[in-house]
Amino acid sequence: MIENAVSETTSQGPLTAEMLAKMDAYWRAANYLSVGQIYLKDNPLLDRPLTLDDVKPRLLGHWGTTPGLNFLYVHWNRLIRERGLNMIYLIGPGHGGPGLVANTYLEGSYSEIYPYIGQDRDGIKRLFRQFSWPYGVPSHVAPETPGSIHEGGELGYSLVHAYGAAFDNPSLIVACVVGDGEAETGPLATSWHSNKFLNPATDGAVLPILHLNGYKIANPTVLARIPHAELEDLMRGYGYEPYTLEGHDPAVMHQQAAAIFDKIFDRIAAIQKSARADGVSERPAWPMLILRTPKGWTGPKIVDGKPVENTWRAHQVPLDKLRENPEHLRQLEEWMRSYKPEELFDSKGRLHEDIAEAAPKGRLRMGMNAHANGGLLLQPLKVPNFRDFAVKINGRGSEDVESTRVLGHLLHAVMQANLDQKNFRVFGPDETASNRIGEVITGTGKTWMAATLPVDEQLSPTGRVMEVLSEHLCQGWLEGYLLTGRHGFFSCYEAFIHIVDSMVNQHAKWLKTTREIPWRKPIASLNYLLSSLVWRQDHNGFSHQDPGFIDHLLNKKADVVRIYLPPDANTLLSVADHCLRSRHYINLIVAGKQPAPQWLPMDEAVAHCTRGLGIWQWASNSEGKPEVVMACCGDVPTMEALAAVCLLRERIGDLRIRVVNVVDLMALQPQSEHPHGLDDEEYDEIFPPDVPAIFAFHGYPWLIHRLTYRRHNHDNLHVRGYKEEGTTTTPFDMCVLNNIDRFQLTLDAIRRVPRLSGQVGAAQQWYSEEVQRHKLYVAENGDDLPDVKDWRWPGNQ
Ligand SMILES: Cc1ncc(C[n+]2csc(CCOP(=O)(O)OP(=O)(O)O)c2C)c(N)n1
Ligand SMILES: [Mg+2]
């Protein structure tokens, strides 16, 4: 017999007997509704004996983590009520979705947002039925769940999101549950260090709760099986003050939880007070809680003769043979009735009023907290006029400029313009200066709450540039920051952004889903600058060469992703301005940091970026129909393509060449595939179907084919790009190794233009000689040929 109500005699603690009974009833109600969601489609209040007709045909969901989450929620509710806290939840084991749905239902948020799930018997039935039902609600703490900014489907990111939410939100408390299995992941392991970046005066508080229910899907967890003292030491080593709550008797646990939470929240308040009123600027040891409770707490203890509660067997659906085994159905009914639904809900199916009082009201309810629907709070970013930072073009390609350094000027101005709003941060894995946007740090500094030494520069507890050598932290902090209604920018080495491939997948899913949820308001875009690019890893070599993040992003929904490869500083400024103002996208900007030729005056740059791709008439020598199109995308490929145009002109003076540059990769796709796609007529005007096009691309060449395979001239498109030939060598040799160099592009053009068929043999020989000359020179001198290195676009057009 399962006995899930607290006994009459209350144990010692801060809760009155009445309050204890109320909170326990609330917890039972949440547990009841959680089990009901997993199992039932009818008979929601067990008005009649349970039959198989009441049970869903497919039993999907996760019970094991859920009672612990429900327990926490009811205790957070007390704290919110008593202290008027502005609090949101983040649930690492997001597979405990039924618990959060149940709680937001009990507090009333759910029915306010979804009126068809009313607070009555019929509403409960619908609530049960929709869960894990085709086109119903997901089993995780998904975008559909009120109060959530974190799905928790992919484990590892709860704590980093929590900190991202807390930055610059001094009144906010973020309660974050970390699964003990989740705690084994790399991103979560490093997330503990976020406390070295949280300023108690200007940021909110994060309360990490390590949910030590002992098990994952099929195994014990590491942290549950090390000595408790070692675990506490680990937390102390991370800089926290650990509190532990352990047990399973509900009455005792409620009292102890209330007492510990009172201590913890007093501690948080004291830390904030001394930082804010007394100006204490040291890094505090923030409290964290280790909650050790049985997995599947209050559920079936033994099923088919095997222990379930407090084992990994409680992870998903503890009784899963209802149709085959009448004993399972009986046990389910017994389990559900153990929560005493008749004491919890009135005859109409509404939670009894005195129990409902255990929840806070109005906006204080976690399901209604605006911080978890960041678009509601989003203020437009003030972006100063990017034209003020334009590079003056004194002859195309005549001077070299580090394009990202120019972007740094704009970012600095953006940072300054939004200092009063405190809603813009820049993130980077120790590469902000290396990527040459370091000016953004000037005046505001880099966030740092750990110790400083006299030798340190620009570190500050109030810094707004966040640098930590973890791409996971940069990504997760930024996501948390954006999801709570702020703006940000992430710069990263191109090759290493892959570390967060999976995180960006999840963020893209969140954006896609929330786009279709009317009550979720659009948030600021996630903006990436990838620099330190594949072509210019002069000293780092192969490990630092990988342009594949573009391919990765391209798999995402067209309404979520934008990819730009500005060929110079002015186009970079224009693109960045656009990205910073946009909403609900993932914007990828790929731009070099090395000194490179500059092509477009600002007016042309803006027009070019607006079109997305276009003919560079100044570099072309045919107004009418060309014989060959030399296309390029990316800064190094653009330079090689233009150098090839010069070589072609030298060899075949009357060849009609058109130069096309692509800045917005999505413009290549048909309009049916992406809103930025050119319509077919316009595309055919630029790439005439019967004219060969040689395309020099920054990334993997097959990506261009993937984008253009439906275009009319696809058979005539010959793409060169990075084909995984990398090493430590000169910039031009990287081009030669991957056959994207000017000599190759020249030969490609001669090969494809029918009129030049007689010249192919000679051109091939010329190509071999040029490459030989280059190889010998590089081997001998350790540098590129002077005529390559010092090449300039001729003529000041
Ligand atoms: C990154 C990742 N790897 C694997 C999984 C599959 N998975 C889902 S739940 C789970 C166990 C989680 O254990 P824990 O964090 O302890 O959560 P709880 O015990 O509270 O259910 C695993 C491995 C996942 N969701 N995400
Ligand atoms: Mg666990």
Q: List the bound ligands.
A: thiamine diphosphate, magnesium ion
How many distinct beta strands?
Answer: 22
The share of residues in extended strands comes to 5-15%
N/C terminus separation: 89 Å
Shape summary:
elongated
Structural class of the helices, strands and pairings? alpha/beta
The helix tally amounts to: 25
Overall pLDDT, averaged? 96
Give me the side-by-side strand order of the main sheet: 12-9-13-14-16-15
Radius of gyration: 31 Å
Uncertain residue segments: none
Q: Considering DSSP H and I runs of 4 or more, what fraction of the residues is helical?
A: 25-40%
- Quaternary status of these chains? single chain
Q: How would you characterize the largest beta sheet?
A: 6 strands, parallel
Task: Note down, in words, how this protein is organized.
The chain has 797 residues and is α/β, with parallel strands linked by helices. The strands form 6 sheets. A 6-stranded parallel sheet has the order 12-9-13-14-16-15, with helices on both faces. The protein has a 5-stranded parallel sheet with strand order 1-2-3-5-4, sandwiched between helices. A 5-stranded mixed sheet has the order 18-20-19-21-22, with helices on both faces. Helix 21 links the parallel strand 21 and strand 22. Helix 1 packs across helix 3. The chain is elongated and about 95 Å long. The mean pLDDT is 96. The structure holds thiamine diphosphate and magnesium ion. Magnesium ion binds next to loops.
